[in-house]
Every structure is written in structure tokens, then in C-alpha cells.
User: What shape does this take?
Amino acid sequence: MSPRTRAFVLAITAPVVVFAIVGGLLGTVWAKEDTYQHLKIFDDVVSLISSNYVEPVNIEKVMRGAMNGLVDSLDPDSAYLSPDEVKQAEATTPGPVGDLGIELTRQYYLRILAARDNSPAAKAGLRTGDYVRAINDVPTRDMSVWEGMRALRGAVGSKVTLTIFRGNAADPHVVAMTREALSPVDVTGRMATPGIGYVRVSSIGPRTADQVKSQVAEVAKIGATKLVIDIRRTATGTYEQGLALARLFVAKGTLAMRETKGAPAKDTIAAGPGDGSVSLPVVILIDNGTSGAAELFASALHGNQRADLIGEHTIGRAGIQKLVKLPGGSGLWLTTVRYLTPAGSPLHEKGLEPTVAVEGPEVEFGQPAPATDTVLDKAIEQLAQPTTLAEKKAA
Assistant: This one.
């Protein structure tokens, strides 16, 4: 390896090593005694690539790929940011409001975590689990979730094209959409059956707790004595907003625990005076698209035996990311805080198991969703019992 190449490698890796040794930000592997052995292997690999690869090597490109791979091994939300991306992350001016209503995760390629109700993505038939292979013809194989989410947003009225794969389909679907300013309405309500109210929370924001409280009051006025709260495909909002929603239903007890890298103890977040204003029996509908604030809400109610969970296993996205700047202007977007269930069990990357498992329907691309909702039907059946599973546990 040439002196210039070696200097470049050291410039890239030195900050990571420093953070690894003093803070352990990249996990236990870097904190072990064999740290320098791994670095030596890394140095050898770069040297061998530089010396033996059949074509001239762009070391900067190789190193960027190595950094992306290093952080990609942590969790889907962590990322290596280029200097330009760091500037974007630090920008104080508001970003564009045009959106498709998509939340992303990562599994080899970018993957749709949720498509918000009535958004351009939902109208185009995109669903949880769809793979996004390209955004405007740019492949997503090496694109972080952070980068992908920025690529989806833009000016209202502007166009974006996604290349989508669903299930085992061999051929992609190219879907063109127009960005919109999404509706601020997050919550709707109706009667599901006599005595059972249905409240749909399509996204979580600063007004969601008040909206849910209002909708619960409305369905209670017309005879609801039990509730179904639907947070399937709900993946937006801050964790504080999810906890605010949980406080409506939990009068006392631990709502969640929070673990921060380097902190000597876990933080306990508990219900307080004035919480628990909604006392009706509840079941919550969840699926693979239930994420973040919605997961924390479901975890708080289920962990306090306040609600049964009906549907599918949630994804386990309950971490907070922090920008760690590196010399040269690049940075690491790292998960440094994670939330735990009220019992102290991991929620981030583990998710929630449903009380009653019900798989959602498989829908072919371009076909309408089934007219019946088997998950909602199961929830109504659950509430129709003399006592719910949560009530039985509490007895």
C-alpha cells in the first residue's frame, strides 16, 4: 500500500477507532482486546485490494463502501454520512414538505415499512414489505434509510419514480407518483359493531393524543363500551408523542424504559397524575408496519395488561439516532439510545409478539385489498368475550 493510500485509510479509520475505544459506539467487538488485530486485518485487506485487483482502484470509493458496510451491520437506521449529507443533517432551514407517505427500513435493499393512509404511496398500492430497488433509477442497494428518506421528499407537485419488487415476483413494477403535502388528520373513528368503537391512528404527531381522546369520546357517546385501536402501518412520530398517547390509557405503572450508551442505569418512564383518562377495555391491532412511536404505545399498554395485541409481530424499531461528526466533514448517524418494554425487555430490533397472531392478507401488485378485515374481525371477537386476555391476566 502506498504512503498516500495508507494515510487516507488512517484518516478514515482513526476517528472510528477513537470512538470505539473511548465510547464503544460501534458495539462490543471494537471494545475487545483484539481490536488492533481486526484493524490489522482491515489494513491488509485494503493493501491486497490496492495491489492485486485487476483494475486501478479508487481507494476513496472502497473506503466509503467499507464504512457503509461497517455501520450497516449495526441496525437499519444507523448510517455513514458523507460531508454533504452531514451538512443536510445539520441544516436548520425546514426541508421540503412534498412527500409520498412512505417510511423505510432496510433489508439488503430499502424496504417499505409503512405507507400512510390516503398518501400517494397508498393510492399507488404500495404496501409494507415491498422492496424499493431504485429511486428515480438510482439503485438503493448501497443507500441508507436516512439517504432514502431524503430522496423521497421534495417540492409539492414534483415527480418521483420507484422500482418496486413484491414477494417472489420476478419482474419489477415501476411506479410514478407525485409528491403531496400530507393531510394533518391522523385519527378517525367509527363504530365497528354495536358496543365496540374503532379508532384508526394512521400516523402519530403532536396532536394525536388529543385527537384520539376526542374520537374515543365521540364513539362513547354513541354507545361504545370497548375499543379497537388500529396502529397497523403506523410508523411516524416521536417517542415522546407515542408515550403521550399511552398516558391516555395507563393510569399507573411503568410505560417504558430507556437505555443510553454509557449511562450507568436505565431510565424509567412512568405514568403520572392525570394519566389514564380513558378506561374502556382496549385491543390494539398491530402488524409488521407498526413501528417507532406506535410500538412504544402498544408496548406500554400491553406491558401494563391494559390491552391485548392482535395481528402480526412488529418490526422492533425503537432507537434514537445521533450525529457523530468525523474529521474531514463526514459523520456517523448512530443509534445511541434504545427503548425497552415496561418489563425491561428489548424492544429495538426485537419487536412485539401479538397476544393473538393473525396474518394480514397477501395482495398481488395492482389488486385491491380484500373487502373483509380478518384482523379486525378477530379483535371484535376478542372484545366480545366476557373478559379479554389482558383482563384475565390482571384478575
Observations:
- The CA atoms of residues 26 and 74 lie 8 Å apart.
- Residues 14-31 have pLDDT under 50 and may be disordered.
- The longest strand covers residues 331-340.
- The two ends are 70 Å apart (CA to CA).
